[in-house]
Specification:
The structure is a homotetramer. Chain A is an all-alpha fold. Chain A has one domain: Tetracycline Repressor, domain 2 (Orthogonal Bundle). Helices cover about 65% and strands about 0% of the residues of chain A. The first copy, chain A, contains 10 helices and no strands. In chain A, α1 packs across α2 and α4 runs parallel beside α7. The N terminus and C terminus of chain A are likely disordered. Chain A binds a DNA duplex (21 and 21 nucleotides) through α3.
DNA sequence: GATGAATGAGCGTTCATTCAT
DNA sequence: AATGAATGAACGCTCATTCAT
């Protein structure tokens, strides 16, 4: 009825962890992440509940609540973790590449495979699946404008920003770099889904290079150069 | 909630309606569609329940169950209705266009605005919103392979097929027409979302031509021409 | 999470029933009132829950929720019922009494015994106990100013108003008729409590006339008359 | 929640503190009293929990349990403290007053304002608020006869006893001194409540003399004297 | 063909309490 | 002496669904 003062929302919200108690600080906490990631990845957040998680992880519901105040916070945390790891790796691996097209290729490769947080997360694969399936749901979610959404989209925005920036150096005249970046990132995820579940709807093959090649084919051509070549 | 045991008992599943009793056959049925579309569009399926629908439409829950065996079937029905109307219109409006690029432009236009089922559906706008937000969720949904998903994706598949076919005539050498078509359709929806809710993430403007132009910019260039230009 | 539109709060709030579905309209509803009254009377609202009520009445929790949206609404309803019955009887039985002191005596008698709603409520005794113990809690409750409190206090206010008015005719010069009326009514309840549970703290006896006599002793004397009598 | 098995293990129950470990013996203990009083006064015991208290006081729940075995014991302790302080002051300030009516006036004044335990309790105001609101709840509480109630009512009984005794000297013929004393004390608290929250139900004003005057008006007149005056 | 009444199961959350450290 | 971690049990509430009428 009241309880307005106990949810202290520990942890930075934007661009950082949001939790009540650092899940990395205990075995139980790590289990929550591990099993939570696995269950969300397999069954979707829709049907994911703390009850099921607790029984899966062999702990009690109340214990889960010591770490995350609700399942959305847990999802948020996991996704942030994924986006952060992705961003970090993207920065690290592209900073030394001068050729923008080559850089986009590297980004495409990163977007098409799971990314672990520096070896820490054995559940990187799960995080990847969650990010893929749930972030889109979030984009299209109904609770637009809420803090929760802002938290969700933050990582996504940073990645698309990175892609957009790269495209801008590759093709400064293209008028829609940000829109294109969003398409690029989502297409990477979408194709991954089609590849696995509806292969008859795409030519993309299971070999990772196949998807990368398709993604690169989306890069808009520099018209000016062509004109100049005459 | 788990929706793993969805009953398809009555009504053709593929390419057609799935219901227990034809909602178009009674005023009550039409109310279910009308209010159902409205409520799903506004609040998302997540929070949509037959309870709320019934109270909104001034009928009882039990009555709703006479038409649709659960909310997923209703969603399925509504989405199919949308895709069918869209496909129908797309066929009708592009069949006489010879120039494939012009055809793609028309398709892009159709994908970026609500489509009514030949005047029947006053709630076309709602259907469009649902299709936009929910179909993507469905694509990425967890119940892959279920009859339910197949039903969902059927309309989507036919539209992307149409787009792919058109692209193939426009650029026969492009190696990923189907993959591209999926990207094209989803990008149309995604940009619509960004435009409304996260305009800072895209250059696309609210003027409909803006989105259309961006979508056309995704069309892959004929490389042969470029080769020929040397 | 939303559910803001299903609680339609049927029934007039002030001075009337507040329920989702009229409990008098079904056997189940009447059981809810009966067992609810009994349980609240015995164990207090504190420890009263719909769960326990349901299991006591041999129905399910969900069924209880069809009638009352929460236990406070049920309590409110029961108390209103008591106050209304009391007020009705008070009006009926005092309207023909001309002598104000005699009227106060009748009111005191009414306040010191259970009042049934015209034979309808076999649980009048319970209602009385609840009214006695819980209404005071409500008076002193923390959620002052809420609609809930207003609903609670309405019946109380009408009774004290009646008493105050009567006193005013009996002793027009007394400067605190409303304050006195509140004291009068609460004292009736308090003494009833002491009599039962802490008899060593009061001289009032179990014979009903004993309490009535004490209450009448609280009536402030007309000083003017006495002076005039000289 | 049912509080039927309250442990009184340590500490004298009647007329003295009941605790596991003397809260006055440590800073932590004093914090428990201070914040506990504050929180109970503001939100009511209903919603008061050791969890909230602990987080407010910057300690752990487990620590609180070292001092008081449950929230009822804490409440009991605080109320006792209030009544004791009140009784002490009442004794001290009235012992030298010979005129019983004057004495009652002094008692009325004490009952209508906060009383500190000889400068020890900065939270006297809170104690007062708790005593006011909760003691009545206790009187009417459902757990009659329990040790817990006896503890609660002890201080109350001593105060009413004092008042009754005083009245007896003022008006030896009045047949209900104890009943009247209970009414007097409760009326003081009740009017205080009405004054603050429902001023339309009383003529008593915020000036302290107003309430005192009303309380004095409740003192029963010596009929014998009047008779004698003839 | 539609309704009213009811149910069983589950969810999210909080609480009082315990115990090893 | 105090903490951190965890638990079991309950609570309030909603949902999808069924069935007699």
């Amino acid at each position: 009825m009241d309880s307005s003062d106990i949810h202290t929302e520990v942890g930075r919200l934007l661009n950082g962890p949001a939790y009540l108690k650092d899940p990395d600080s205990s075995e139980t906490g790590r289990d929550i992440l591990l099993f939570g990631a696995e269950m969300m990845a397999c069954g979707g957040i829709e049907s994911f509940t703390f009850r099921k998680l607790a029984s899966r992880a062999g702990i009690t519901e109340a214990t889960v609540y010591r770490y995350f105040s609700n399942k959305h916070q847990l999802l948020l945390y996991l996704l942030n973790r994924y986006w952060n790891a992705l961003e970090y790796k993207a920065m690290q691996e592209t900073v030394h590449i001068n050729e923008p097209l080559e850089r986009l290729q590297r980004l495409a490769e990163l977007l098409t495979g799971p990314v672990a947080q520096a070896g820490k997360d054995e559940f990187a694969g799960h995080l990847y699946a969650i990010a893929m399936s749930e972030s889109v749901k979030v984009h299209l979610g109904t609770e637009t404008g809420s803090d929760w959404q802002k938290g969700m989209l933050n990582g996504y925005a940073r990645i698309t920003g990175l892609v957009a920036e790269t495209l801008r150096t590759a093709n400064p005249d293209y008028p829609y770099p940000r829109a294109w970046a969003a398409t690029f990132v989502d297409s990477a995820m979408q194709q991954q889904f089609l590849l696995r579940h509806l292969p008859e709807l795409t030519e993309v093959q299971s070999a990772p290079t196949s998807l990368t090649r398709f993604l690169l084919s989306l890069i808009p051509q520099q018209e000016s150069k062509e004109h100049a070549s005459f």
